[in-house]
Specification:
The structure holds two protein chains of two kinds. Chain A is mostly helical. Chain A contains four helices and no strands. In chain B, helix 5 packs parallel to helix 6. The chains are: A mainly alpha, B alpha/beta.
Chain lengths: 115, 225
């Protein structure tokens, strides 16, 4: 029985993900502006998922079976959609908050000018 | 009938064609304190309003009707007392300033009354889309407030300043009418419908920035939050 060969591309993908996760943790520890706990969690989830799939490819098969999909690709598409929806929601929310701040600022300027 | 004193508040966005006439009609009806919030118009709405004798507050950016009314109310709060009356009227001439007194008079005679709201009379001239919009608006209002208000989306209203204490107006462009009614219900305030005329001028029908279907849906989502 031959030992499983290590795919250099997958090894590299895993290392890049690991480096990304470490950078995110460092940014959070340094209290970098705008780098919230939620952002750290999202970064770690994405980097972690990439590392697991790159270094343990059989985990993708297990996840596919667990989710009830026939093919790994379907799982990937499903997860990608899910992530995109979350990102779109987050973006929309951010735009809404910004819009609210702009309105408040506009009102303040208007009232200060008139009074 | 005694012509009472009340503050008239108009939110205007690119209404240079009609705003001067609306202000003149308000003054003719006996209401000299006209406050206009120019909501980031790119035309000369603000200048015309000022020339017509109105007090003009200017939004440097277009923020929508709710935000404009909110700015105007905050300004009036700095001038007037809690029992003073504010009349909200649309800038496009679809409400008749000569009918302001119909809304104000009940508030003057009944001090426990907090708000009067206009109920537009449906005529053969009322476009179908407006009829349907009104039915839909009333249903949304029932869902949101738990009470039926006839013509809940009509912007022609008179209220005492105390009525809006604690009312945080959202940033959505057109949700103000429904938010106000919900505030009335939640705080057990008193309101009264008043029949008003329904004027559809060719100008108001052809306005390019009136509330569309997408904006209506956005308002609905905003109210649901």
């Amino acid at each position: 029985m031959s030992s499983p060969s290590i795919n250099p591309v997958l090894l590299l993908v895993g290392l890049i993900s690991l480096s990304g996760a470490i950078t995110s943790i460092r940014r959070f520890i340094k209290h970098e502006s705008g780098f919230s706990l939620l952002k750290l969690i999202v970064h770690l989830m994405i980097a972690g998922a990439m590392m697991i799939v790159a270094w343990f490819p059989q985990s993708a098969r297990a996840a596919t079976k667990y989710l009830g999909f026939g093919e790994n690709l379907n799982t990937l598409i499903f997860v990608a959609f899910l992530i995109q929806f979350v990102m779109i929601y987050k973006l929309a929310r951010t735009v809404e908050v910004l819009e609210g701040r702009i309105v408040k600022l506009t009102q303040k300027i208007s009232l200060n000018k008139t009074q | 009938m005694i012509r009472p004193s009340a503050y008239i508040l108009i939110a205007a966005f690119e209404e240079a064609t009609v705003i001067g006439q609306v202000i003149a009609d308000c003054q003719k009806a006996g209401y000299d304190h006209v406050i206009i919030v120019d909501d980031g118009s790119s035309d000369i709405t603000g200048d015309i309003a000022r020339q017509a004798g109105g007090i003009v507050l200017t939004h440097v950016l277009n923020c929508g009707k709710s935000a404009s009314i909110s700015t105007g109310l905050r300004y009036i709060q700095s001038l007037a007392g809690p029992d003073d009356i504010v009349v909200l009227i649309d800038a496009d001439g679809q409400h008749l300033p000569s009918e302001i007194t119909l809304l104000v008079q009940p508030l003057l005679t009944n001090t426990s009354l907090d708000l009067t709201y206009g109920v537009r009379t449906l005529t053969r001239d009322t476009p179908l889309i407006n009829r349907l919009g009104r039915i839909l608006g009333d249903w949304i209002s029932i869902l949101y407030t738990g009470k039926r208000f006839e013509d809940s989306q009509c912007g022609f209203r008179a209220l005492r300043l105390r009525t809006i204490t604690g009312l945080e107006l959202g940033i959505d462009r057109y949700a103000i009418e429904t938010q106000m009614l919900r505030h009335i219900v939640e705080h057990h305030l008193t309101s009264m419908p008043v029949k008003i005329s329904n004027v559809y001028t060719s100008y108001s029908k052809n306005k390019h920035h009136k509330q569309g279907v997408m904006q209506g849906l956005k308002t609905l989502v905003s109210l649901a939050q």
